[in-house]
Amino acid sequence: MIEIKKNSIITIRIEALSYGGRGIGKYNGIVVFVSHTVPGDIVKVNVTKRKESYLEADLLEIEEPSPIRIPAPCPLFGVCGGCNWQNIPYEKQVVYKEEIARSLVEHIGKQTSFVLHPVISSPLAWKYRNKVDFTFGKNPEGNLILGFHKPGIYHEILDVKECLLHPEIFNDLMNEMKDFCREKGLTPYDPRDHCGNVRHFILRCSGNDHPEGKKGVIAILLTAQEELPGRDELVDRLRSRCPALTGFIHGLNEGKADIARMDKPIHVWGDDYLHDRLDRISFRLSALSFFQTNTRAAEPLYETTRRFLSLTGKENLLDAYCGVGSIGIYCAHQAKRVYGIEILREAVWDARKNAAMNRLDNCLFLCGEFRKTLPILLNRIRDGIQRVVMDPPRGGLDKKSLRSIIELRAPVLAYVSCNPTTFARDAEILFHGGYRITDIQPVDMFPHTYHIEMVSRFEMEKPF
Ligand SMILES: C[S@@+](CC[C@H](N)C(=O)[O-])C[C@H]1O[C@@H](n2cnc3c(N)ncnc32)[C@H](O)[C@@H]1O
Predict the structure, then answer these.
(1) Model pTM?
(2) For a surface tag, which of 65, 66, 251, 369 has the fewest beta carbons within 10 Å of its beta carbon?
(3) Bridging pattern class, strands 412-417 and 387-390
(4) CATH fold label, 92-123+293-460
């Protein structure tokens, strides 16, 4: 094998895409990862990292562009990093996602005998997001800007005027907010010295029309201090620019970490919650409760989850990491009882209201950390758990939680995951606990990005 040193300049053909979005090529049999490339490109690259089994390289020149390349419509493409597959036709993106899902589950999860169903495409390829989180920052001239974090540089913000992934009204509200803050001389919060005030501007809207016409758009402004000069004037301006706005919440975030959390909500005007709908089921969502970001694609995701659970009406279903109860409630008509566990108090309140709103009396939602709350739940029920659906955050489940799920010995499990690497890791633990994957259904919730959402069905194969 030829020795390749750091800073070697080589030419390779990009063959595939990796989870994370980088192109994959090979040089003398060694895998090379290169950002900003597309399968079919022939590229000149500079090797920046040499690891035992692969190389990382920076793109120097596209010697021959791939025939599948298309122009990216967003002017911030390549700089923003939010959706770096815009230069690949949408119908090809879903094929690459399927290949990535298969290879991760086979390599990390060490399972091969499952059926991987073709990716279900998002009903909307653009403007599909029902939520966006903008961060305030400063440009090099010291002026306030509002936009997204630059990839890899957590304290630098990219000024955004328009994003193609969410509805137009979010762009209008964001630009109005930015103008207002500049005119009033408000200072952006800087996570490095903890100075400044305005931190995050979060916008959410209903993705589907509500049967009673309660479609909404709410704005949440997070600041480091409670004092916000001109707040009423700001709300008037946002309302007159965007009459579809239905609520404004001002939240205090005193934490040091640069995450959008609300220590004290101040309900300023209109609704402090949102309504959305999946199929015929309505959901009420508090300002920061989790809800699937692409409402229209959540319907096939939940429909598949319900089918994978093989419910007959006789089973108790545990909805682990249940958020506002959405999956459990979606399945409740086919289950004997639904038990949900969720850490966020507001989401549990929403879940209880959602069950009542949908006239369900077979759902119980408990608030707490999953691992600690499951034993409390099990002490309250006598007829066991026969089905489990788990939908954890990106990091997946911790080992103890997985072990406690395995110990329930439910014949069928469904795992909804937004991160195929942590899913594959957890699938291996479930495999050693006696569970075999039978089916995987990826659903594209995030067109033009490398993100993959999928639901997997597990069957208990042998006693552990
Ligand atoms: C990916 S969301 C899924 C929510 C819901 N299943 C849905 O589809 O809308 C993950 C949820 O897990 C909750 N969560 C995170 N860590 C948790 C923990 N340790 N115990 C219980 N819930 C947790 C989050 O607040 C969030 O609502």
Answers:
(1) 0.94
(2) 369
(3) parallel
(4) Rossmann fold (3.40.50)
Q: Give 299-314 pLDDT, tens digit per residue.
A: 999 999 999 999 999 9
Query: Looking up tokens 């208990």, which residue turns up?
Result: 460
Active-site residue (options: 74, 80, 322, 418): 418
Contact 14, 34 (CB under 8 A): yes
User: So where are the chain's domains?
Assistant: 9-64, 92-123+293-460, 131-277
Helix ranges (DSSP H) in 316-457:
326-331, 345-357, 370-380, 399-408, 420-432
**Which DSSP string corresponds to 233-251?**
HHHHHHHHH-TT--EEEEE
The pair of structure tokens assigned to 389 is 């659906």
| Residue in 276, 295, 342 to alter for ligand 1 test, most ligand atoms within 8 A of Cβ | 342
- Residue 418 annotated to the active site: yes
pLDDT at 462 over 80: no
For the domain 131-277, what is the CATH code? Answer: 2.40.50.1070
What pLDDT shows up at residue 426? 96
Q: Ligand 1 center to residue 127 CA distance, Å?
A: 25
